[in-house]
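User: I'm curious whether this sequence folds into something compact or stays loose and floppy. Could you predict its structure so I can see for myself?
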Amino acid sequence: MVDQLVVGFDLDMTLIDTAPGFRDVLAALGGELGVEFPIEEMTAKLGPPLDLLLEPYLAADAIPAAGDRFRALYPDHAIAGTPAFEGAHDAIAAVRRHAGRVVVVTGKYPANAQLHLDHLAFDVDHLEGWVWGVGKADALRREGASIYVGDHVHDVEGALAAGALSVSVLTGGCTREELEAAGTHVVLDSLAEFPAWLEGHLLDLRLAALDADLKQRGSVLVAYSGGADSALLLAAAVRALGADNVAAATGYSHSLPQAERDPARDFAQSLGVEVLTPETHEMEREGYRANAGDRCYFCKAELLDVLTPIAAARGLAHVATGTNADDVVAGFRPGIRAAAERDAITPLADAGLTKEQVRAASLRWGLPTWDKPAAACLSSRIAYGVEVTPHRLGRVERAEVAVRTALADHGPRNLRVRDLGERASVEIDATLLPLDAAVEADLLDAVRAAGFAEAAVDPRGFRSGSMNEAL
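Assistant: Here's the prediction. I'll summarize afterward.
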């Protein structure tokens, strides 16, 4: 599994525009000391420790006391008026979207740095203050930061010394040329560009990890449903191993909609891989028919029990599923447990690829499945505790075809007909609700004609996994 993302940020002139507050404090300090500091010139050089900035203008033995007084004046003169740079909060939020940690590593006096973080409500896990240049490396290494974002050449030095990727923004006093000469890896105009850069960077890293993982596997049989996840996995396997070392297997049973079969087979064949369509018999498993909360365990167990010997007979080293990184942390996923017990591998999850990244990678590679809506098996439409039977699966499939036909002019993206016993609940995209009364009446007539005694449109709209709400 991939390590947790940890991103370090400098504070002054990276997250916050310190210049106005610095000017005010410096003016107050100069007034007390009777020294006329060149405030604009000093402010243009923000980044180095305060003692170094004061050094040209004060006697050496006066600097420590002046520094202490500067820090004492700072809260009253510099906190309230110091703004966050455009994109600062969004940059931190971008790290959070990937379950990452945020650390601030700054040369600033820690207590005053914390005042800024609190005042601007920055969501930060750890603050390290009073460190400068290569001295930042110890904190970055200790916190496990793989990226450090700063505005100064000395921030670049700290990142490189820590073995972190250096990202520089042009909101401080250093030019692009100076930062590049210092060895920074990336230069952004501002933090407003950071979220998009981070998305692309992580996708590159995780696709590279996926490729490396698959190459060392040698050969794979992909448990292929035709959805976005397994389609990307299949394409990645062909890229890494060549079509001769990859096969796709789709289990055919009552729970796989007919409409899913041809497109899935056509895509796999377009990659040049052998497509296998063995029958699976999950309906013969009592736990599957009983349809308790662990139904997916029995379904996945049946699939892997069918595919594992097929892979062995064809000399394929592993059976791989399209489980992604979001699935692993989603909580209730009995199917993942069944696959793990049967030694199936999960390359997408192991590379840290989320569902959003699966779609982004698929779009990058030109795969037709990049925006394909989730299409769980038909059994997922049947309420827990209601027995799964071929009859119920058939009427759900007929009802969904009828609803899609009735809504053809509205172009629903997501659609489910939930079997609640003898009553059907129809879920469609919330953006299409409420439906015109005549359209809704025709739709519900079509659902009843498919075999349900009663039917209603769920006013909350489509929700993936809504059956789990009852668990």
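Summary: The first helix runs from residue 19 to 33. The mean pLDDT is 93.
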